[in-house]
Amino acid sequence: MRWKNEKGQSIVEFAIILPILILLLSAIIDFGWLYNGVIATNNAVREAARYTSIHIYDSSIDDDLAAARAIVLAEAVQLPADGTTVTLTFVDVDTDGINESVKISAEASVDLLTGVTSTLLGRSSINVSASSIMKIEN
C-alpha cells in the first residue's frame, strides 16, 4: 500500500543520516592521518637511533644530537610542516660495560585535517611520541 504524500521521505531520511555519515567519514580521515603521523615518527626515531648507535664515537654528543635531529626531520616529511614540532632527547649512554646503548626520543604534534573531529575532541592537534633504544656498535 502506497501513501499519497511520500514524495519527500527520501530527502528527510537523507537529512537525518547525513550528519552521521559526515562524522564517520571525518573520523576515518583523521584517524588515518594520525596513524600515518605515528608511523612516520616511529620510523624517523628508529633511523636516528640506528645512525647514532653506529656513529656515537665518531664525534661529540652535540654533533650526534644535531645529526639525529636532522635525520628525524628528514625522515618525518610525511608529518604536516605547519604545526609540527619535533624535539629530541638524547639520553646518556648506558655504560654498564656489557650493554652500551643509546636512546632517542621524539615528540611531534600532528594537526587534525577535518574540523568535525577537532570540534568533537576540543583540540586541533594530537601529540604523538616515539622512542628507540639501539645497542652501540663498536
Unreliable runs: none
Q: Structural class, from secondary structure content?
A: alpha+beta
Cα-atom radius of gyration: 23 Å
Give the count of helical stretches. 3
**Helical amount among residues, as a percent range?**
40-55%
**Oligomer class:** single chain
How far from one another are the termini? 84 Å
User: Within the largest sheet, what's the order of strands?
Assistant: 1-2-3
Could you tell me the number of beta strands?
3
Largest sheet, strands/sense/barrel? 3 strands, antiparallel
String of helices and strands: HHEEHE
Principal-axis shape: rod-shaped
Features:
49% helix; three-stranded antiparallel β-sheet; alpha+beta; 138 residues; single chain
Report what the structure shows.
- With 138 residues, this protein is of the alpha+beta class.
- Helices cover 49% and strands 22% of the residues.
- The chain has three helices and three strands; from the N terminus they run H-H-E-E-H-E.
- The protein has helices at residues 9-54, 61-75, 115-121; strands spanning 87-94, 101-111, 125-135.
- The chain has a three-stranded antiparallel sheet with strand order 1-2-3, covered by helices on one side.
- Strand 1 and strand 2 (101-111) form a beta hairpin.
- Helix 1 (9-54) runs antiparallel to helix 2.
- The N and C termini lie far apart (84 Å).
- The mean pLDDT is 80.
Task: Report a brief summary of the structure.
The protein has 138 residues and is of the alpha+beta class. It has helices at residues 9-54, 61-75, 115-121, and strands at 87-94, 101-111, 125-135. Helix 1 packs antiparallel against helix 2.
